[in-house]
Amino acid sequence: AQSVTQLDSHVSVSEGTPVLLRCNYSSSYSPSLFWYVQHPNKGLQLLLKYTSAATLVKGINGFEAEFKKSETSFHLTKPSAHMSDAAEYFCVVTPQLGTASKLTFGTGTRLQVTL
Amino acid sequence: DGGITQSPKYLFRKEGQNVTLSCEQNLNHDAMYWYRQDPGQGLRLIYYSQIVNDFQKGDIAEGYSVSREKKESFPLTVTSAQKNPTAFYLCASRAGGDNQPQHFGDGTRLSIL
Asked: CA A24 to CA A73: how far, in whole Å?
């Protein structure tokens, strides 16, 4: 079985400073990993995905994430935060192919961006 | 534009009443999902369907029912047996295999009157 842990439930940064949202995963196979963003009263929007190609993945809105197998991590970063980045972020790990199982969602990290 | 449409945006339920949440997609995706989201929590899977006329229970199916008569539609009924239905409900769909991301609608917020 797979699991995912988002290490911070809440992160606060100033506008223009870097963003780091941490995600660790556990699985007995090579999973795919995603980051989603959710703004208030909205659905989840896919930011980026890792599917066993390049380990550094670039997504939308200037976000990127690096898959580190040795550290079982998939941290999300952005060089410079914008007020519009304030939202909830979810790290997600896929099931093993062929098991017809379900996605595993982290509990989310709320990003606050201050002036 | 292709996407997932959930309606209504807000829904109120009286005691003893069943309510149905609509989910329609024009992405031609085979798989569809229903999730429940409570404040400060992640998403919990209610039901999913990988093909028309077939669906499986997720982690919290009690008090809910679904149907999948058409590829593009996957309605969720919250029955009176669901004693704590107040939550944000999200519908999603997916193309391809289990290692592909899901696409989400904008959700329905259900409250008790």
From this structure: 4
Q: Among A57, A103, A110, pick the best mutation site for testing chain B contact (most B Cβ within 10 A).
A: A103
pLDDT per position as a tens digit, A49-96: 998 778 899 999 999 999 999 999 999 999 999 999 999 999 999 887
Contact B103 A103 (CB under 8 A): no
Dump pLDDT digits (tens) for B37-51. Answer: 998 778 999 999 999
A1 close to A102: Cβ distance less than 8 angstroms? no
CB atoms within 10 A of CB B23: 24
Burial class (CB in 10 A: 0-12, 13-18, 19+), B94: buried
**Interchain contact, A100 vs B106, CB within 8 Å:** no
Of A45, A90, A97, the CB nearest to B99: A97
Tokens of A102: 């379900």
pLDDT-above-90 percentage for chain A: 77
- Whose CA is closest to A65, among A104, A33, A113? A33
Residue of A nearest to B101 (CA): A34
